[in-house]
Specification:
Elements: H1 6-25, H2 31-52
Helix pairs in contact: 1-2
């Protein structure tokens, strides 16, 4: 087990919570759209973060 990626998982969790809140705040109420938007945003930012570190 490699615990070195724990920070990446935590960043992903925080990004998911923030993006869910922002998308809901801006009026997107469809659950599938919320999940899709959150997934895409989190994947992109986490991939960039993983590439940088």
């Amino acid at each position: 087990i490699n615990f070195a990626h724990g920070e990446v998982y935590m960043i992903s969790a925080y990004l998911a919570a923030i993006s869910l809140a922002l998308l809901a705040y801006f009026g997107i109420e469809s659950f599938p759209l919320l999940m899709l938007g959150t997934l895409i945003f989190t994947i992109i930012v986490t991939a960039v973060y993983g590439w940088v570190i």
